[in-house]
Amino acid sequence: MDGPLASTDMTRSSFRFPLIESLAILGMFAGAWLMHQAFSPDSDIPNRAILVLGVADMVISFGVFAYVLRERLRGGVGLTRSWIITGSVLLAVLLGWNFALMIDADRLLVEEKRQHELEKQLGKLEDSLRHFREAIPRSTLIADKNAWQTNHDRYAVLQGQIQTALRGNEAWEKDLSRIHEQVQSMQKLVTAFPNNASVEERGKLRTEYQQARDRAVQIAEALRNAVDESARALSATHRQRWQAVGGTSITAAMLIFGAMLMWLVFDRALQRSRERVARLEASEARYRQVVENHPDPLAVLDANGAIAYVNPAWRAVFGFEAQELVGRRFMELVHADDRPRVYAASGPVLCRLSADYGIWHDVELLIERDPEKSVVRIRDLRETSELPILRKSVASV
């Protein structure tokens, strides 16, 4: 294909990335980043100034991108293959990043759920420790070993479950061991509690027992608060990570997808434009072939009446070369006496036309007039039987 479209190929193998389009895409990413910065994980109210700035940046970037594609479409210039390759690779990377993030988010959710379950168990353990006061009630200094054993069995079950759940966290395991040490101290005091001892001695033992129980409850409460704080921190981390990484990468993936979609629309429009140009050039080629092989002379005139094109038959009939005629006014070749009739003609008209070798040819002109260009078909009448009749008709006029 001739013309400017033939020199551009949308699938050129050289790896060249369009600069202006790349800057527009970076502007879109900057707008997406500003929009995400406007939404803080710790607040449900966005920063409106940053949000408006991000939206404005994205709108301007998309406008620049669309304008550049429009100019490329007008000029028939396609994008290089590297555009679609780079966009596809970047889109695949971002989608893979999101997939990995979702897997990590599931792990965080499982960990968060496990910590909430642990927090509930520690609450039950704390209640179980408080029930140890039933072993030595305030109303009496006599130990109730049956009540102790009942509470201890409940405590032992909870302590075993929590110890299994705390594996891997040395600080929490250490706190649980401290609780167990206080329970063992209480167990020793209950086991060695003498019913025949003096009131003063039994009061002392009961005070030590109550102090050990209180210390165990305090440690259990502190451990529960630590687990609760860790669960809240884990939830905040999950939310921040999703907002900072997941949301941004999803937005970036959507931006790339939108840019590639615009590119595909642009590509389709450019292909249609090229197909129209190809059909037009093919039609012009067929028309040119017909015109150049036409036995009668033909001339194409511009809006000013100057000759823009003549077919090869001019040389055979009138002796003129094409370069001698192009640019000349056609009426200069018509006899001065016949020019008014040619100007006024709305159909075939007889006149005399100059030849290169200094004689006048009797010809019949058929002029197809148009504001932009006119086509003149010329039939030489020198050797036709119609010439005497036509001369009489012209003379009568």
Q: How many domains in all?
A: 2
* Helicity, as a percent range: 55-70%
Low-confidence stretches: 1-15, 385-390
Tell me the quaternary state.
Answer: single chain
Let me know the number of strands. 5
Helix segment tally:
10
**Average pLDDT value?**
76
Gyration radius, to the nearest Å?
A: 49 Å
Can you give a write-up of this model?
The protein is α+β, with helices and mostly antiparallel strands and 397 residues long. The protein has helices at 19-38, 48-75, 81-130, 145-165, 170-191, 199-292, 313-318, 322-325, 339-344, 387-396, and strands spanning 298-301, 307-310, 349-354, 360-368, 374-380. The chain folds into two domains: 1-293, no CATH class; 295-396, 2-Layer Sandwich (Beta-Lactamase). The protein has a five-stranded antiparallel beta sheet with strand order 2-1-5-4-3. Strand 1 (298-301) and strand 2 form a beta hairpin. Helix 1 runs antiparallel to helix 2 (48-75), helix 2 (48-75) runs parallel beside helix 6 (199-292) and helix 4 packs antiparallel against helix 5. The model is unreliable at 1-15 and 385-390 (pLDDT under 50).
Summarize the structure.
The protein is an alpha+beta fold. The chain contains ten helices and five strands, in the order H-H-H-H-H-H-E-E-H-H-H-E-E-E-H.
Ordered list of secondary-structure elements with their pairings:
Layout: H1 19-38, H2 48-75, H3 81-130, H4 145-165, H5 170-191, H6 199-292, E1 298-301, E2 307-310, H7 313-318, H8 322-325, H9 339-344, E3 349-354, E4 360-368, E5 374-380, H10 387-396
Helix pairs in contact: 1-2, 1-6, 2-6, 3-4, 3-6, 4-5, 5-6
